[in-house]
Amino acid sequence: MQVSVDRDRCCSSGMCVTNAPAVFEQDDRDSLVRLRQTVLLPEQFDDVLLASELCPGRAITVTGDEPARTGV
Ligand code: SF4
To answer: Which residue's CA is the nearest one to ligand 1's atom 2?
Structure first.
């Protein structure tokens, strides 16, 4: 899975950084979102999907298929 952001839609809420700080950061100059990485590791999927759902600006897009997970 991959993630992208639309900085024009970002309103600097910081919700994404709270939920997935390894993937998102906020620019020191304008507080808008920046990506630390675009290709996600499987263990990051849930946090990034949650960040996307909670983003008030609808600025986060997650693409690609989530691989099947093995059972516990
Ligand atoms: S949650 Fe959305 S609006 Fe808030 S900083 Fe992240 S991308 Fe921007």
So the answer is: 55
